[in-house]
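Late entry, written up from scratch paper. The run itself happened at the end of the previous shift, but nothing got recorded in the book at the time, so transcribing now.
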Amino acid sequence: MEIAVRIHAVRLRARHAHRGAALTLAAAVTLAGCAGTGTSDATVDAAPFSAGGVAVSVRIESRDDGLRVLAELRPQQAGFHLYSLDLPDGGVDGIGIPTRIRVEGALRPASLATTDAKRRMLRPAGLDVRLPVYEDGRVVLELPVRRVEGADRARVFLTYGACSERAGCLPPVRGRAVSLSLGPAS
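Output as recorded:
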């Protein structure tokens, strides 16, 4: 079965919460399941934002093998690295903010988030700890998802932090929300 994506309307609107910690993004799309063959992959891009010294874009992508949420994160300063997905929830000795992506509402995870970014160990100056981070450049998180029947609103939450071996760490971002208004599932 192929999932076709027909974009009826995309309306992007950003609102900053009272603490400037939340970005709400409303995108009206219809995701409809269809039987058939061929490839009619489609993508719905959300408005990019930056927080914690990291440029971020989020999109939903439909492929023949299913629906995915993709989040691209790129530190905005040279020499800063995103913490790894496999950093423990509490960090290492309390240091570090693990990279996380999760969904709720009209989307449910179909499996764990992955990335093909190369991992390395970073030792911040003055600390006797080694932290798993990704190499310089962009990191694309991929979360396979499925639609929930009867639900038409979803939220994607991102948690991440970036640090440098010499310049310390940037302010962490915890639970940054992107809201998506999806058309009815069929």
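DSSP finds no helices and 16 strands in the chain.
(Scratch paper discarded after transcription.)
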